[in-house]
Specification:
The chain is α/β, with parallel strands linked by helices and 249 residues long. The protein has a domain of 161 residues: Vaccinia Virus protein VP39 (Rossmann fold, 3-Layer(aba) Sandwich). A 7-stranded mixed beta sheet has the order 3-2-1-4-5-7-6, sandwiched between helices. It is globular. The structure holds S-adenosylmethionine (SAM).
């Protein structure tokens, strides 16, 4: 086995030991056969914010559905699906308690928007909030925007867009300054570059803007928790496989 493969296996074992419940539920979701039956359901069957509502909304806006109805509309959107990252249960756990208090002061920031399936989910889930999308390259979203609208997206809320480079600290800080000003962030999602360098720059750039009861989701890196939790002990951290969740204490 190469060193790279060994490290990856070690990370997975460590991840299982740290969050056995998350991994057990993920394995269960895969085994019970999420397929056509699941993806053919209407999201209205579930409460907004429920993990199944999140997965069905993502699928509706072009999310990946291998094992289910594969419409050939695969355009990003692999975070909520039980067939892929299956972060839906964790998103649901931390977002549901916030939903009662969402008003025009509530701000959601997603860094790394690609084709915008995430923005479409956030605009439906937080119709009264300020939803901000940031990316190095906004053109993927702009090109897909009409397609998303045809699928029903952005009828209740529309996102604001900003360019950011998560690998350049001063550019990232300026992007947050321009986007947020005096505003505070209630929910942030980092689904961008995914390297530890970019994750650190992004978290430290957005940290001064985080609201009292904020929650942050940092996706797709097993090492985020080890890298950031001890540097930012004033926050509360947890790790669920490749997803790290941060809140204030
Ligand atoms: C995994 S995709 C995002 C998927 C999206 N959140 C969704 O809902 O489907 C990653 C995104 O990160 C962006 N990205 C890559 N490097 C970046 C950087 N240095 N700064 C900002 N965004 C970056 C890419 O342009 C891409 O749109």
């Amino acid at each position: 086995m190469t060193m790279k493969k060994t490290n990856h296996t070690m990370r997975r074992i460590r991840s299982w030991m740290r969050s056995p419940r998350y991994h057990a539920l993920k394995a269960k979701d895969k085994m019970i056969g999420i397929g056509d039956e699941f993806f053919n359901q209407k999201r209205e069957k579930y409460t907004p914010g429920d993990y199944r509502w999140l997965a069905l909304t993502e699928a509706m806006y072009g999310g990946l559905q291998i094992g289910g109805v594969n419409t050939g509309r695969n355009r990003g959107g692999d975070r909520m699906s039980p067939c892929f990252h299956n972060y839906g249960r964790s998103y649901s756990e931390f977002l549901m308690p916030l939903l009662a208090d969402v008003d025009a002061d509530f701000t959601v920031v997603e860094v790394g928007i690609l084709n915008g399936s995430g923005l479409a989910i956030w605009c439906d889930l937080f119709p009264k909030a300020r939803v901000i999308g940031m990316d190095l390259n906004l053109s993927n979203f702009e090109e897909n925007r009409a397609g998303l609208e045809a699928l029903g997206a952005f009828q209740q809320n529309t996102p604001e867009l900003y360019t950011i480079d998560q690998l350049d600290r001063s550019v990232a800080e300026k992007a947050f300054r321009d986007a947020l000003g005096e505003d505070k962030v209630d929910v942030f999602i980092d689904d961008g570059h995914h390297s530890l360098e970019s994750i650190e720059i992004t978290f430290e750039g957005i940290k001064p803007y985080l609201a009292e009861g904020f929650v942050g989701f940092i996706e797709d890196n097993f090492d985020t928790y080890d890298h950031l939790a001890h540097r930012h002990r004033d926050c509360w951290w947890t790790t669920r496989g490749e997803l790290t969740v941060v809140k204030n204490k």
